[in-house]
Amino acid sequence: MPALLSRLRSYFFYVPMVYLYTAIMGAGSLISSLFDRDGRIQHWFARTWSKMILGTASCPVTIINPEKLYVGGAAVYVVNHLSAFDIPTLYAALPFQFRIMAKKELFRYPVLGWHLSRSGQIPIERENARASLKSLMKASDTLKAGTSMVVFPEGGRSPNGQLQPFLGGSFYVAIKAQKPIVPMALIGTYEALPMNSFHIRPRAFQLVIGDAISTAGYAPREMDKLAALAEDAVAELYYSRSTIERPATEPADEALRHAQLTESPEGQG
């Protein structure tokens, strides 16, 4: 009976309220985009929308190590992707304006997609190499102009709560702009709303911030090596606090990975 009541609460209260908030706040964001040149008003709408969703679903978020967020300027903040709750959690928690690199499919949704396009978020189209490169260069220009980027380097939500391999595109952006990478880990969003589910289970979230990783000395062709470094940092933050079990790693693969990560980037030619 408790499980049935929880599902009914999700289907007939939580989910309809999320759609209502999205329609109202999305419309406000679209209207503000007509005169909001620097995106501050649109970001306020996104942040307020996020807080409304988390408040209604009884999912408060706490930042662990908030002092590590600040690196003296713009940065690329990389974070694991677990749930539809991830974007609202990041908007509600992060106390500064940023832009998101997201897969092109999100930009096709009514209201949400319109907001993403009008507010300067960066669509990534992996099937089209030329379009993808154009998006990466746009993200690099955004960083150079002083606005931070938030990216999900896994490329999509995890189906089982475990970290998926990191793709190199966002690290190419960081190297081109010569901006640091800040690893972050979301805890609890998978348990609250896993992929392909509409059953919201209220719980507290954590956003854990790690030490910044410098891009100095890296060339764009070394983006995969930098991705592996960031992946290890996010994995340590995540599995040290999450209820999700860390997958086993083959010893030979782990030894090879360690050897690759301990090489100096300047020694790569």
UniProtKB/TrEMBL annotation:
SUPFAM superfamilies linked to this entry: Glycerol-3-phosphate (1)-acyltransferase (SSF69593)
Pathway field: Lipid metabolism; Phospholipid metabolism; CDP-diacylglycerol biosynthesis; CDP-diacylglycerol from sn-glycerol 3-phosphate: step 2/3
Ranges of residues in domain Phospholipid/glycerol acyltransferase: 75-189
Matches recorded under Pfam families: Acyltransferase (PF01553)
Broadest EC class assigned to this enzyme: transferase
CDD domains given in the database record: LPLAT_AGPAT-like
Top-rank taxon: Bacteria
Transmembrane domains' residue ranges: 12-35
UniProt EC number: 2.3.1.51
Catalytic activity reported: a 1-acyl-sn-glycero-3-phosphate + an acyl-CoA = a 1,2-diacyl-sn-glycero-3-phosphate + CoA
Molecular function in Gene Ontology: 1-acylglycerol-3-phosphate O-acyltransferase activity
GO BP of this protein: phosphatidic acid biosynthetic process
GO cellular component: membrane
UniProt entry keywords in alphabetical sequence: Acyltransferase, Lipid biosynthesis, Lipid metabolism, Membrane, Phospholipid biosynthesis, Phospholipid metabolism, Transferase, Transmembrane, Transmembrane helix
InterPro entries: AGP_acyltrans, Plipid/glycerol_acylTrfase
Family in the record: Belongs to the 1-acyl-sn-glycerol-3-phosphate acyltransferase family.
Record remark on domains: The HXXXXD motif is essential for acyltransferase activity and may constitute the binding site for the phosphate moiety of the glycerol-3-phosphate.
UniProt protein name: 1-acyl-sn-glycerol-3-phosphate acyltransferase
Originating organism: Koribacter versatilis (strain Ellin345)
